[in-house]
Specification:
alpha+beta; 406 residues; single chain; elongated; 12 helices; 8-stranded mixed beta sheet
């Protein structure tokens, strides 16, 4: 007994009957879905990266030498090796200012020779006694190495075999890994100040030169300040400047960066980039929908005889519309799945490389977020194909057996 041919079966048969047209339409839909999926993943990851900046800074104020805000931004956003120094005594002055809850500092070490290390990275020394930033991002409790007493923390992007790194021909054990933040801090090695001083001494023995003098006892690069409750950033910044001007360090020029202002300024810069991404997605889908609409409309003219036969066999206008929508749904579903799959093969395995190339905070979206975005892209692609077929479905609604419109 022959199996009755359903409307979906008719739609599938017609799609298979035109392989070249079908391949072209599926390719168009797949490209649109891939662009949308990749763009949404990028936007989501950038937003996660911005959140990572806010969490990783962990302080309300950052104090740097005057004129080095841009270099500080480079370290935080992309992990770009940099150096700048001021007197460490400023930290003691800041600590005594009313409204200051916690203070810690970091020292940025930069070598003149990239051959000193297994990979070109920024080495940052932190004060383990006052730190309230770095240790909070450790994946486990931080303890010094049993054999050397060193404390070395590695960013999530640091590729170290057997949890060891080599600096200046000396191998060091990594005490702990830091959680991924999507910022330049993922490309940084942190060491407590005694360990950093030891690295510097090892380097001098090997003849390596430094831009800095390595004096982390009297110099520092950045001072992080956490404000006490009920105090404002603007007022505290003014009090810190006044306290420094009245001290022995009054001649040193500093710049106080408010973390909230720093992040908001970066978000504004990023907004124009995100607008471009959204506009690109909209443009791609408008072109895809219009192209599909034209192709569906042209196919109606080619299939007048087919629809006439169906009408003679008893198919009503509703059945003809269902065939059109079924074809659109099949093409949309197949194209969306292919596009999402291809985009996933490009983005997911190479997200670290992508983050390095765009030089922006980039924390890969979680598996749940990726799954939600994939579902959204699938539905948008499917609805776009159905929307493109509406005009053809309306035309077929007026179709009569003799092949002309009412």
């Amino acid at each position: 007994m022959e199996k009755a041919l359903s409307l979906t079966g008719l739609a599938s048969a017609n799609i298979r009957r035109k392989p070249y047209r079908t391949a072209a339409l599926v390719t168009l839909i797949a490209l649109s879905a891939a662009v949308l999926f990749g763009s949404l993943i990028l936007v989501s990851s950038l937003k996660c990266g911005i959140g990572g900046i806010q969490s990783r800074i962990g302080a309300d104020l950052m104090i740097v030498p005057e004129g080095y805000e841009a270099k500080m931004e480079g370290v935080l956003l992309s992990g770009q090796p940099s150096y700048f120094y001021m007197s460490k005594g400023i930290e003691d002055i800041v600590r005594k200012v009313e409204g200051v809850q916690e203070v810690t500092s970091q020292f940025y070490l930069t070598s003149l020779s990239e051959s000193c290390c297994d990979f070109p990275i920024q080495i940052i020394g932190f004060d383990s006694d006052t730190d309230f930033i770095v240790r909070n991002w450790s994946r486990k409790k931080v303890s010094s190495s049993a054999s050397t007493g060193e404390v070395i923390l590695a960013g999530s992007n640091i590729n170290a075999e057997k949890n060891k790194v080599t600096f200046f021909a000396k191998t060091h054990d990594i005490s702990a890994r830091l959680e991924k933040s999507g910022t330049g801090m993922d490309n940084v090695i942190y060491a407590d100040l005694p360990t950093l001083q030891k690295m510097f001494s090892d380097a001098k023995e090997k003849g390596f030169g430094f831009i800095s003098d390595g004096d982390c006892a009297s110099k520092t690069s950045v001072i992080f300040v956490r404000i006490a409750p009920n105090y404002k950033s603007d007022g505290l910044s003014l009090r810190i400047k006044n306290a420094l001007s009245d001290s022995n360090f009054g001649s040193e020029k500093i710049q106080i960066i408010q973390s909230e202002s720093f992040v908001s300024t970066f978000v504004k810069k990023l907004s124009s980039f995100l607008v471009f991404i959204y506009a690109n997605c909209i443009l791609v889908f408008v072109i895809a929908v219009l192209t599909l609409a034209v192709v569906f409309s042209m196919s109606i003219n080619e299939r007048l005889r087919e629809f006439s036969i169906l009408r003679v066999l008893g198919a009503d206008h509703s059945s003809l519309r269902k065939i059109i929508f079924s074809e659109a749904a099949i093409l949309g579903s197949v194209g969306a799945v292919i596009g999402i799959f291809i985009a996933s093969l490009v983005i997911l395995p190479f997200n670290v490389i992508i983050s390095e190339k765009i030089a922006l905070p980039f924390a890969m979206a979680s598996p749940l977020q990726v799954a939600i975005i994939a579902v959204i892209v699938f539905l948008v692609s499917l609805c776009s194909c159905l929307a493109a077929s509406v005009f053809s479905a309306l035309r077929i609604s007026k179709f009569e057996i003799y092949g002309s419109a009412k």
